[in-house]
Amino acid sequence: MKKLLLVSSLILTGILLLAGCSNNDPKPEDRLAAYTKLWNEKKFDQMYSYLSDDTKQKVSKKEFTERYTKIYKGVEAENLKVTYKKPKEPKDHGDKKNVSLPISVKMDTIAGPVSFDKSAKLVQQEKDDKTNWYLDWNASYIFPQLKDDERVSVQTYPAVRGEIVDRNERGLAMNGTAGEVGIVPEQLKGKESTVLPQVASLLNMTTEEIKKKLDQPWVQPNYIVPIKKLPADQTALMNKLSGITSVSVQEINERVYPYKEATAHLIGYIGPVSAEDLKKLKGKGYTANDTIGKRGLEQILEDRLKGSAGAKVYIKGDNGQEKVIADHPAKEGETITLTIDAELQKSIYKQYKGETGSAAAIQPMTGEALALVSSPSFDPNKYVLGISGAEQKALENNPGKPLLNRFSSTYAPGSTIKALTASIALKNGVNPNKALDINGLHWQKSNWKDHSITRVSDPGKPVNMTDALIYSDNIYFARQALDLGTKKFTSGLESFGFKDKLPFEYPITGSSYGSIDSEGRLADSGYGQGQVQMSSLHVALAYTAFLNQGNIVSPYLIEGKQPAKKFWKQNAASPQQASQVLNMLKQVVGNPHGTAHAASKLKIPLAGKTGTAELKMSQGESGAENGWFVAMNTDHPKLLMAWMMEGLQNEGGSHHVVDKMEPVLKKYLKK
User: Fold this and answer.
1) Rounded Cα–Cα distance for residues 319 and 391 (Å)
2) Which candidate in 415, 472, 511, 554 is catalytic?
3) Is 457 a catalytic residue?
4) Which of 416, 485, 547, 600 lies most in the core, judged by the most C-beta atoms within 10 Å?
């Protein structure tokens, strides 16, 4: 009996030992888990050691590694996630020499997400006296549709950039065409001395610039090497170039700005993505071959305009049929409609005739921006087609600074602020009929030593508020500002939007009044000098208070994006005070002594205010003058404009601006 127990004990011990040895044998689950870990890390060279002998006979380590690397790079595989969920309890595979285990593969590609499930086949093999499990691999592990002798291809679809149009659907930034002039090097050979100078002369380039393009590393003898792009309307020039040996002219798709200089600062232009752009926009789908908004609304509205490129990842089978792995169509950018009236914008710009200044036109009852002009300007098409270094340098060195956007900048508003000073005075209880006894053209307080106020004319009588606006009397409004005091005066300016950010889709510098730290500076601020600064758009908006019962409309630029609130500033003045100021502004045009009386010959019900801001470093010296004119029709108001022109000291000051504005008022209001 004891012998039987001993034998039984030995048998049980042997079984347990065998079981322990069995638990230490390599498991296919463990091998697959290790393999998928390397796969997720894209360690393709280490993955190769997990392949079966049969697989290694068909594909070398170099081929295996390069195929994975090239395909994943080509399809821009990101966020790779290969999953094998190892079971909690190991499965007994018995004496099986091959097993199949499920895996799932997910990744993001250039053509969108790709995912598939696969049954991974592992075989048991002995190598170096050790038994282990190895993957019986083929190309379907990369993509299920892929065979060993097939290639993965990628086709891209470019994004179609959205267009910008005006309120009447006139194109402001359009997808059009251009002519691309190129040269074929092998056809040029032996004719360089005659052809290059001829082409250079026609294209306004140097022969050295053309040679530099022909000497680029990628150039091949039979390639058409792009030299310059030309506007589509230059057909005569393109025909002449086409007749020259070795020269090719092809039609290409290109961004076009039909209104050229008139809308350049507002619309901007596009250009190639720079290395700096790519760094800032990492993860947003841009490549080195893309274009991007570089200025104006093209830049501001980039996210809405750009659209998104599409792509297809596919395999071309033996029979010529495509096996599509992923397909993502291109998404067209938005077509954005502005409140701008392009023809009004063009008419205003044309009136400037290269003179320096800015203008804003709005619908005063709704806040729609109808025109935003900066002069002088530049042709944005040149930037798209490829501006030469000489042309860029000429723009940068031009004393008129055509690249400077003036409508987004601020300037001393001069006498246009007097309507605001009048409104602030009324709000603080000033009687508009009370006349101030002012004698002569100069005035100063008894305690002032080095400061005095000068006015343009002396009406020869005491001046009330209406008179002061008609004659644009600096002394009257300087004294009103002094009587109000700094706190009440600046508080009044702030009720008109000073020190606030303008709620507008295009960035406009906010208006400010600087540091009013003396009586002299307070007095000067009352008639628009001192450190007071306003943009032409804010001047226009401030005047909407007089048409809207004391409320300032909220401006907007994009159709369908009306502000949640109609008014940006409410109760800048009471309805009665707004009406009083409006009636005074009517007299500025209607009264024979009014500074804007010249506009009365149009026979249009108008209200307005002229302004002259003198730019000088100190009292007593002469300086350059900026002229202003704000005008609005009062019979069913639909147009309010604020124009500023620089350097008018020898042009009659603000009267010159009135003359310039008249044709536009006549065209748009006298219908």
Assistant:
1) 55
2) 415
3) no
4) 416
